[in-house]
User: Fold this.
Amino acid sequence: MIYKILYFFLFLLFTQTIQAQLFGHNAITVYGGSSSNVKLDGAIAMGEVFTGSVSSRPYASLGIISLAGNKLTTSFEEDEWIKFVTYPNPAMDFIIIESPKLIQTVFLFDTEGRMVLRNNDGQGKVDVHDLKTGTYLIRLITKDSKAYNLGWLTKIQ
Assistant:
């Protein structure tokens, strides 16, 4: 019996208590971002989790999460499925992009995320002759200012 009581008290002494804090108004500063004169209604866990709403100001930044007008964007709805055709792949000198929408700009990004090519001519033919051999992400912006990732291009010599 005494062991059960001792175990019970040791369990109480060495348990971890987790607390959340409810914030009211005034400034809140978080590593990676801050807000000023913003009222936050909800609970904030320092780290990657936020629940609540923002009022009194149209914008607040809390690290990598931005809150604007009481909305937290975690994904974007697709307007429609659009079929783009890109060929040849792998490519040596050029690629052709067939699009049902008017093309404004074509970008190519390397595997480290650097933009290596920007083509603003609005045509579907893109010269890739000067690119190094490798793999590139194709992204285009249409005339109606929508961005589309078309997939990967393999450049060969």
In short: The longest strand covers residues 134-142. DSSP finds one helix and 15 strands in the chain. The chain has two domains: 2-68, 85-155.
